Amino acid sequence: MSASPAAAASPARVLVTCPPMLGQIAAFHGPAAALGLELVPAQVTQIMTEPELIAALPEYDGWIIGDDPATAAVFEAARAGRLRAAVKWGIGVDNVDFAACGRLGIPIVNTPGMFGAEVADVALGYVIGLARHLFEIDSGVRAGGWPKPAGISLAGRRAVVAGLGDIGRSVAARLMALGMEVTACDPGVQGDAGLPGLSRAAWPEGLEQADIVVLTCALTASSRHMVNAETLARMKPGVRLVNVARGPLIDEPALVAALRAGHVHSAALDVFETEPLPMDSPLRTLPCVLGTHNGSNTVDAVHRASGEAMERLAGFLQETAPA
Known about the structure:
This protein has 2 domains: 5-112 and 298-319, Rossmann fold, CATH 3.40.50.720; 116-290, 3-Layer(aba) Sandwich (Rossmann fold), CATH 3.40.50. It has 11 helices and 12 strands. The model is unreliable at 1-7 (pLDDT under 50). Helices cover 33% and strands 16% of the residues. By secondary structure, the protein is of the alpha/beta class. Helix 3 runs parallel beside helix 4 and helix 6 crosses helix 8. It has helices at residues 19-23, 29-34, 50-56, 72-80, 98-104, 116-131, 134-142, 166-177, 229-234, 252-261, 299-319; strands spanning 12-16, 37-41, 62-65, 85-88, 108-110, 158-162, 181-185, 199-200, 212-215, 239-243, 264-269, 288-290. The longest helix has 21 residues, at 299-319.
């Protein structure tokens, strides 16, 4: 990252609320300063609340957004103060009111294409772990046992991948490399996405034959609760379900019922409808592997996405600087 003319002036104050970037924030102060930015890390585990953002953001020139409620009310309060630009760290934008930003004249962008491979690696780890009971075996050995559950072989099995963007393509490629037959569902992508042998279908087609279902799609009005009582009933008994996208893609009470009934063999969930996962969630007592919305969080990916976010924000702030 190269220094900008803004670096000679007073730095623009930027609130950072993205947990992966916060986890490595010390590495970004120097590059940010060269771009004319002063990064201020939020004291947060997952997200700031809407009232907290409304109170804090008017004091900042820029905002690097995580999964916080970036609502119209938040942007209106921030714009009434100093906020001039924002960047949504990462791919998902379901929590950001872009229309409000347009109406208020706040330039904003996300950082797509930064960590498809990293999230796909986590998805693959979940698939293999569920197929071979690796997490169950680990827990059993730690408890003093010596369990030997029979898993399933993946070669020749069928998988449905919902979403064929950067992450979905990377997941499909990895599953195909294991010898799986993969069907992808994504109305916004045509053809095989550069993966010869990839089958296509419209959700929820193909669920009846799937041994593995992996969710990698964006959260939209049409995809919310795409995994529900009806689609779960269509799935093959003993199906294994992986979600590395967004929690509200799954109707969690419906999944709980399917897990309790044994219709769904097991699930690996990196994301949830409410994050962090509530202590009283029944998912904690069911055959699930539970993550922390951490699929993109590698040193390398965080540096790529954070560098892009800072570059884009610095550019916006230069363009909107007072004369």
